[in-house]
Amino acid sequence: MATTEIVTLRGEAELVRRAGALFGGVRREFLCAAGDLDTWSGAASAARRSPAPGLVVRKLYGPGVFRTSAGREVLHRLTTAGAEIRISPAPPAHETIVVDGRLAVLAAPRPTAGEARTYNVVQEPTVVAGVRALFETAWETSTDLATYRRNPFPLLDEGQRAVLRSLAAGHTDEAASRLLGVSLRTYRRRVASLMTALDARSRFQAGLRAREILGGRHGTPPGGLQE
């Protein structure tokens, strides 16, 4: 790929084809932020083809990586291979890769069905440095994988944890707000915040995720949740 400072590519296949050599040439540091394990699948494979001694690999994910057994298995393989992994309370807003502080790849938001996702490959030094600094900030405020597994969402206060328990129990918004002694508006605001942290697209999905986090201690299925 030419050394143009910013290049826009369409689809991960084109990203790997045109920028694969840059990924494969990583020597010191490979940083990756993604909402799920599929975002950079091809790019990550390209980086692994030519590992270097002393290479630092840091991967930052949202809670959605725990949604499937396949995702948990990938996390296990990554940690076994020596990658450092941390979990952000919410999916990273801007999915990115930074290679050796010299190259950054920024993924555009997911397109509608049938359209290829676009990726901006950046080699302008000041922009790459800025992207790397943002990654470091997100990294420092996230939780390492081992700690997260023991205590998901450790930064939640007791009010937020009460909402989590209410979601797991399947209470309606009205019933939950009465039980917690807060206004309906306040309860719904807290639910919206937790849905982001849980990487949930609906109240029902949030309830299922909450039950997983709480270890299935609530016998009531989340059927009473309002969509």
What does this structure look like?
By secondary structure, this protein is α+β, with helices and mostly antiparallel strands. The chain has two domains: 6-150, Endonuclease Chain A (Endonuclease, Chain A), CATH 3.30.870.10; 158-224, Winged helix-like DNA-binding domain superfamily/Winged helix DNA-binding domain (Arc Repressor Mutant, subunit A, Orthogonal Bundle), CATH 1.10.10.10. It has helices at 12-24, 41-48, 69-80, 125-140, 145-150, 158-169, 173-180, 184-198, 203-213; strands at residues 6-10, 29-34, 56-61, 84-87, 96-99, 103-107, 118-122, 143-144. The chain has an eight-stranded mixed sheet with strand order 1-7-6-5-2-3-4-8, with helices on both faces.
- Order of adjacent strands in the largest pleated sheet: 1-7-6-5-2-3-4-8
Low-confidence stretches: 46-50, 216-227
CATH topology name of the largest domain: Endonuclease, Chain A
Binned, the helix content reads: 40-55%
How many distinct beta strands?
A: 8
